[in-house]
Amino acid sequence: MLDARGAGMRKAIVCGSGVAGLSAAIALASKGWQVDVYERSTAVREIGAGIFIKGNGLRVLDGFGLFDNIRAGCVVLREARTLDKDGRILQQRRLHESNPVWNIQRERLITALLDRATELGARVHTDSSVEAVSPDGSVSIRGGRLGTE
Question: Do 141 and 38 meet the contact criterion of CB atoms below 8 Å apart?
Fold first, then answer.
């Protein structure tokens, strides 16, 4: 397979299918890379309940074409408070639209990232624990060796 310059297609191996791994897969696949994501769990899944996303994270999601999809399932925070141990307000401030903070369920975020990565051609391999990475860019998975060449 050739890339747009007529050279061999660039290949990438991503270890892990969390927010960072799937984001890397999307970024690379959108630039024409052939991407394989290796996940040690038997399924791509979220860890944790919710995540706050603001500023740069929102711009990245917008660049991935996920802004509207993610926005539909978010709570947009309008106010930030700092409380003491008894629940009394120590600090309170309004959050403006120019610097939004969104709260989203991790499951929805991971699903959106996974769907976009696979839509762009990234291949996700579950139950595939990466055991070692070599300086030449190859990885060992269950005794097998995969390279980026």
Answer: yes
